[in-house]
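dumping the sequnces here before i forget
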Amino acid sequence: AIQMTQSPSSLSASVGDRVTISCRASQGITNDLGWYQQKPGKAPKLLIYSASNLQSGVPSRFSGSGSGTDFTLTISSLQPEDFATYYCLQDYNYPRTFGQGTKVEIK
Amino acid sequence: EVQLLESGGGLVQPGGSLRLSCAASRFTFSSHTMYWVRQAPGKGLEWVSAISGSGDSTNYADSVKGRFTISRDNSKNTLFLQMNSLRVEDTAVYYCAKWSTMVRGVIRTDYGMDVWGQGTTVTVSS
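..and the predicted 3d for all of it:
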């Protein structure tokens, strides 16, 4: 199975900060990667698909980049509603695998 | 509004069985691959299983292979997860999710899990 490694596992940031989360695949997955946001007690929400495409309705401060094994989720200016846990998911093959998550907390 | 609604969770003893259901509404259910994803208390997301729109192709995480069976009834717009030989480590919130794909000619675009249910809690304990 492809292993997905996210970093950092958590971070503290202030409103307005630029935040970057990384996800590395154990083998090349072309651009078959999505990013999901989850708030406590809620179901995850799709943010980015195919590594860099913004899901409909998601604010443009979210962006994704990368291909092959290294991917990045960037929040250009952190807003209060962005404090949550973020997960990457590879859909290159089965079994699908998530990263372990990155918790974004208020500084 | 497109919606998924899980049911069937509960408390079960180790070695027991449980069947989860996920009722879909307001989209063409049979056109979409469907997923089960779980989250143990305080832990991250774990993909569990997937089934194609027609139901003829299924995939499982190694952790549940041989114990869980995914199925669907397209006439009733319902997804199922039959869970047998349950273990304490299967305790989790189980989510169903719709996978979106668009095919235009020879180009296929996978959008990901764009609709999720609210989750149903499974507790395996003696």
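The interface with chain A takes residues 35, 37, 44-47, 50, 59-62, 95, 109-114, 116-119 of chain B (CB under 8 Å).
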